Amino acid sequence: MTRLTDTFRRIATPAALAIILLTSATSIAANPVLPFEVISVHADYHVIAWFAGHPDYECVEAFVEGPERIRAILSRHDQTQIDIFNYPGADAAPERDSRAGKIEFALTRDRLGAKLTLEMPDGKTLVLSYVAQTAPDPAYGGLTDPGTHALDGGLPAMFRKASSVSGPKSRVLIDGKTYPIPIDQKISKPPFFTGYSAFMSEGYESVFFRTFAERPAQTIPAHRVAFASGNAESGSAESGIESVILSPDRVTLRFKPPLRAPLELPDGETETSRFELSFSGEREPSLYGTVRASRKGDGITVRLLPEYPVWAKASRGMRYDIRVSGTDVSVKAAMDADRGL
């Protein structure tokens, strides 16, 4: 598994949900629709720790939006996960193991320490006592590598504004028994620096393009979509979707050139564009690649193929299959098994 600078993982607490399916220029203003189901969320704090010796679990983490809104994730050795929420009405993905439970998070004034306490599915109490080597630092920020967790669940993009690395005093207790946090061999450079496999971040932005079974296409508010119309006077002949705001003032998805509406593709044609996912304050996009839409009869396929970073290119491409039947439009999303263009 990949750690720090590449660290952290998985999906974020669903604070905002968008399902978009490109339509025509005339309808986009009133009813913009893309086959991407996107969860976007901001967490004030994110803490995560890997631990050794437990028969079932290897990792615990939490996304903290506030004391009354925390989502924790327990990861098993087989890379499956359990979501635990301490608030009602959580938008849990139906394909994930999710449940309600007690969760508390406390941060020390110097920002060097944190304590996460949660109720596990079997009723036992897990306590993560986190002690950092420094306060969270932007030098340790950046995009997170999700590793091998939930490889069939979609494309995650998680951005850390500032992070810290654990020292030797951090530990995980489950039902009173201590489980050690191992040295992170990838980031450690002995004898100059030794880092442990636990981290805390401030300002954690999460976007997740997730897979889902076939269902009717849905829409998002028009004000979140920027549409380009070809203009001969300005010298621009490009039209289509320019960008989608996934999280206001925080996360934007852009298409260069603007992406033509897949539903308007003539039979046998293909439309290709570049997509870029950018987080607030970034000079360059954190994640980018190719998006390709092709049509055959009433079937339309849209492929989202990351090119950067490397971990996304290797295993996080996505495929969206759109089916048109009269006025009905359905879509399903799965991981892309064939990266060949």
The low-pLDDT segments are 1-32, 232-237
Helix amount: under 10%
Content-based structural category: mainly beta
- Broad shape: elongated
DSSP strand count: 23
How is the secondary structure organized here?
Layout: E1 16-20, H1 25-28, E2 36-50, E3 57-66, E4 69-76, E5 81-85, E6 97-100, E7 103-107, E8 113-119, E9 125-131, E10 142-143, E11 154-166, E12 171-174, E13 177-179, E14 196-210, E15 212-216, E16 225-228, E17 240-247, E18 251-259, E19 270-279, E20 287-296, E21 299-308, H2 310-315, E22 318-325, E23 328-335
Parallel strand pairs: 5-6
Antiparallel strand pairs: 1-2, 2-3, 2-14, 3-4, 4-5, 7-8, 8-9, 9-12, 10-11, 11-14, 12-13, 15-23, 16-17, 17-18, 18-19, 19-20, 20-21, 21-22, 22-23
Task: Briefly characterize the structure.
The chain is mainly β and 341 residues long. The protein has 2 helices and 23 strands.
